[in-house]
Specification:
Layout (H helix, E strand, L loop, with lengths): L1 H27 L7 E7 L2 E11 L2 E10 L2 E13 L2 E8 L8 E8 L3 E5 L8 E6 L4 E10 L2 E11 L1
Antiparallel strand pairs: 1-2, 1-10, 2-3, 3-4, 4-5, 5-6, 6-7, 7-8, 8-9, 9-10
Amino acid sequence: MFQKITLLALVLVAISCQKKESVEKDKIKIADWLIGNWENKSPDGALSENWIKLNDSTFSAASYFIKGKDTLHFENIVLAQKGETLTYFATVKGQNDDKPVAFPSTAESDKQLIFENPKHDYPQKITYTKGADNTITAEISGKLDGKVTTEKFVMAKE
């Protein structure tokens, strides 16, 4: 009898662990629309973000702004799910001792992702919105030098 109860308990633990793991990996699926190469070309230069899926719980992107032959901005981005939380990690060379800055998600839907870190100097908020005709809008906002600032970047899928 004791062996049957022990076996039943082990089976229940194994099943609950499998279920939890699949729930954890399901949350990042809402951001699948980010995957791909996105670009915005303007007279000021070209902004590109290239998103790839690393595994069931992590996406990665390289974001860069090029004017002529000069790379004016480059950052590595990781979108990771740990437990029930999606977190956007941005690493910009030459900033924050080259360490990633974490922006936990505050809202997710199949059309919009919002990440916030009120303690960061700028931006404090990062929003991605899925648009029509294979476009996304990346928006950064917050206080910069005491003024509320918002920058929007509309990108089309390549």
